[in-house]
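WARN no homologs supplied; continuing
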Amino acid sequence: MASIFSRIIAGELPSYKVYEDEDFYAFLDIRPMVKGHTLVIPKKEIDYLFDMESEEYVALMLTARKIAKAVKRAVPCIKVGMSVVGLEVPHAHVHLMPINAVSEMSFKNPVIPMSQEELAALAAEIAANIEE
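OK structure emitted
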């Protein structure tokens, strides 16, 4: 059975896409810990990040860097933190979160409420800030 992320990539489930290329897809988390919380995933369904082939892993990290720079341009913050947990969805992914304090990286923090309109506008702003 396809992961929820594979279903998002296939267009079966909606997402607030910020980036897509032949190998990767990036979109806003619909349950964000902070404004701008973005997921970057490989299109190839691989459960565990460290099972990726070396070239795929490096390409994912380079893509995450590109997206993180766009997130930082779109959302005022000191840095964009990256977290890899990998237990919640059986599909390799990284979380990018604009942060001003380490405590903002905690998944124990409450989800911040954002409307569909706010998420769509933010996704468009991050996408507009991606440099190729």
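The mean pLDDT is 95.
OK
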